[in-house]
Design brief:
By secondary structure, this protein is mainly alpha-helical. It has one domain (18-173): Alpha-Beta Plaits. Helix content is 31%, strand content 7%. The protein has seven helices and four strands; from the N terminus they run H-H-E-H-E-E-H-E-H-H-H. It has a two-stranded antiparallel ribbon. A two-stranded antiparallel ribbon has the order 2-3. A hairpin with a 4-residue loop joins strand 2 and strand 3 (99-101).
């Protein structure tokens, strides 16, 4: 479905550019209206914002797995959780050593990034080269064997008893 006239490009962006402040505000507002513990995917919320439809009735976009924000190495063995409090959609989950952003639940609002005191959260295109593998680590923690799937909100699940194998093996200094 094409966005209504006048809204074309309102929140769409090339995959290689950071979302604008207006995009973030629209996505956060949409997520807040939809509720923190929805089972709605990030793509559904973006479609909703782009099309100007009323939140609450979404089409299904199963299989959306592109991560927009990624939690990298600085979070390992720190887990400050300030980002969890800022997330309007409850998409930041806790493992034993680190936190993970659910790729289907994240609405790309960016609220978590400035909240992190150890600067562990990056927009995926801004990840330093030495931490690029954390894009896959975040996504695979939900989808790989023993992954937790899409529970529809971290508060429903609580801390999970395992980390991704890369995190388990990671040596911190």
């Amino acid at each position: 479905m094409a966005p209504p006239r006048g809204l074309t490009g309102a929140v769409s962006r090339p995959s290689s550019s950071r979302p604008s402040g207006e995009e973030k505000r629209m996505r956060c507002a949409t997520a807040a209206i939809a509720g923190k513990s929805t089972r709605t995917s990030r793509r559904d919320l973006i479609d909703n914002a782009e099309c100007g439809t009323i939140p609450g009735v979404f089409s299904s976009h199963e299989g959306v797995s592109d991560v927009t924000y990624v939690i990298a190495e600085p979070c390992i063995d720190v887990k400050d959780k300030a980002c969890v409090e800022e997330c309007p959609v409850d998409c930041i989950y806790e493992g034993p050593r680190t936190l993970y952003i659910h790729p289907d639940e994240c609405v790309d609002c960016g609220a978590c990034e400035p909240a992190c005191p150890v600067e562990a959260i990056f927009y995926e295109d801004d990840l330093p080269d030495n931490w690029k593998q954390f894009t896959a680590v975040n996504a695979e923690w939900f989808t790989a064997e023993n992954g937790i799937g899409s529970p529809g909100g971290a508060a429903k699940v609580g801390p999970v008893d395992h980390d991704h194998p890369v995190v388990v093996a990671w040596q911190t200094s």
